[in-house]
Design a protein that fits this description.
This is (S)-3-amino-2-methylpropionate transaminase. InterPro entries: 4NH2But_aminotransferase_bac, Aminotrans_3, Aminotrans_3_PPA_site, Class-III_PLP-dep_AT, PyrdxlP-dep_Trfase, PyrdxlP-dep_Trfase_major, PyrdxlP-dep_Trfase_small. By secondary structure, this protein is α/β, with parallel strands linked by helices. The chain has helices at about 15-25, 60-65, 70-85, 95-110, 125-140, 155-160, 195-210, 240-250, 300-305, 320-335, 340-360, 390-400, 425-450, and strands spanning about 40-45, 45-50, 55, 115-120, 140-145, 180, 220-225, 255-260, 280-285, 295-300, 365-370, 375-380, 405, 405-410, 415-420. The strands form three sheets. Strands 4-10-9-8-7-5-6 form a seven-stranded mixed sheet, with helices on both faces. The chain has a four-stranded mixed sheet with strand order 1-2-3-13. Strand 2 (about 45-50) and strand 3 form a beta hairpin. The protein starts with 13 loop residues before the first helix and ends with a helix.
Length: about 450
């Protein structure tokens, strides 16, 4: 069987070392990086570095490459757009791509109500603008996000984000009128609680939160990731999501679904919220929407979106022609290649493998996921459930040395998440899963040896 991963040098290789020296001189260390090398070419689910090493990509540029690296349809669309014009500024002279993309997303988004779409540059910008739109429409100020949620690194969005290090530490003071509500974590629920009992408890805590922390009539919006991304790929129950949604409706609060990591076929749907039979008032999108080209957006009910006056929304590069062209091509690829169905198939295979590994290794506390958004939580042992960040990092390093790109996540940094391109072949997927198992075995063995010294 053909091998796809091929690491010929130590990491970093000689060319990467030279670039790392320059990186240290000219780029601040606050900009993090994973594997210590530099990309040269990338196609589909494979990335080749400057020293000729080839990696199977289970990271997907943190979930931005669902249709794969350099998909021919996307690169063709970009080249054609560059030949016509690169940028005019939609707020100076409009272009058709923006309108075509808005129309497509309005039709794809859940709900049969009229919708409008605003385009921006990044996921954080999409969230910022969802907040602006919600406040403008409701004439309320408070915004509720959830514990372990992640929404970005701007002042507003890092305030909404839970994890202090590295996202918030010493960057305060933070934006006012931001509140964090409880969100279920089924793996760590109180002993003796069923999932249903636990849902009831967390929903009751949310009701108490509306009494003790912030009055509902002051809340403009509740923003929820349908599956928490950076928080550890935590999948809520339908009961919980619908319970929060109903409380929002009861109090005139807008419900915002943050689909920046979960959207565009990652969970087997265009939008992960479709799994929960809930129709959001606003949806934020980015990442895989542009296949690596910066673009983001807010999709929402027309009466909400249209409340702002001209000039109150948008920006110089918002919804750039290149981003719109890439996103239109992405939507074509998803439909033509049946990527929603493919994501379900990948997710089933990955979760089966993760459950097998959890049976083998006491250090894997839980395997979980929705569609192709899957993760394993690493612990010291299954009884204590103590988070094992050191082992998580060791596994990721072992994997990169073997030619597999992985990411960590979770409040404690002890979750291994996978965001491989949905266009990955079966052979590449199996090889990547084999490398992951080899990496777990090697990291566990080394950790055991170290404990004996």
């Amino acid at each position: 069987m053909k091998k796809f991963a091929d690491v010929k040098t130590n990491l970093p290789g000689e060319k990467a070392k030279a670039l790392l020296d320059k990186r240290k001189r000219f780029v601040p260390k606050g900009v993090s990086n994973g594997v210590p090398t530099f990309a040269d070419t990338a196609e589909g689910a494979l990335v080749k570095d400057v020293d000729g090493n080839t990696f199977i990509d289970f990271a997907g540029a943190i979930g931005t490459i669902n249709v794969g690296h350099s998909h021919p349809k996307v690169t063709k669309a970009l080249k054609e757009q560059v030949d016509r014009f690169i940028h005019t500024g939609f707020n100076v002279m409009m272009y058709e791509g923006y309108i075509k993309l808005a129309e497509k997303l309005a039709k794809l988004a859940p709900g049969d109500h009229d919708k409008q779409v605003l385009f921006l540059n990044s996921g954080a910008e999409a969230v910022e603008n969802a907040v602006k739109i919600a406040r403008k429409y409701t004439k309320r100020q408070a915004i509720v996000s959830f514990k372990r949620g992640y929404h970005g690194r701007t002042l507003m969005t890092m305030t909404m984000t839970s994890k202090v290090k590295p996202y918030k530490y010493e960057f305060g003071p933070f934006a006012p009128e931001i509140y964090k509500a409880p969100y279920p974590y089924y793996y760590r629920r109180p002993e003796g609680f069923s999932e249903a009992d636990y849902d009831e408890q967390v929903l009751q805590e949310f009701k108490d939160f509306l009494v003790g922390d912030v009055a509902p009539e002051t809340i403009a919006a509740v923003i929820m990731e349908p599956v928490q991304g950076e928080g550890g790929f935590i999948v809520p129950s339908k009961k919980f999501v619908q319970g929060i949604y109903e409380l929002c409706k009861q109090h005139g609060i807008l419900f915002v679904s943050d689909e920046i990591q979960t959207g565009f076929t990652r969970t087997g749907r265009y939008f992960a919220i479709e799994h929960f039979d809930v129709v959001p008032d606003l949806i934020t999108v980015s990442k895989s929407m542009g296949a690596g080209v910066p673009i983001s957006g807010v999709i929402g009910r027309s009466e909400i979106m249209d409340k702002s006056e001209p000039g109150e929304l948008g920006g110089t590069y918002s919804g750039s022609p290149l981003g719109c062209s890439a996103a239109l091509a992405v939507l074509d690829v998803i439909e033509e290649e049946n990527l929603n169905q493919r994501a379900e198939k990948i997710g089933e295979r990955v979760l089966n493998k993760f459950n097998e590994l959890a049976e083998k290794y006491d250090c894997i506390g839980e395997a979980r996921g929705l569609g192709a958004m899957c993760a394993i939580e690493m612990v010291t042992d299954k009884n204590s459930k103590e988070p094992n960040k050191a082992l998580t990092n060791a596994i990721i390093q072992e994997a990169s040395n073997r030619g597999l790109l992985l990411l960590s996540a979770g409040m404690y940094g002890n979750v291994i998440r996978v965001l491989m391109p949905i266009v990955i072949t079966d052979e590449q997927l199996e090889e990547g899963l084999d490398i992951l198992e080899e990496s777990i075995k090697a990291a566990v063995s080394k950790q055991s040896e170290a404990s004996l010294v």
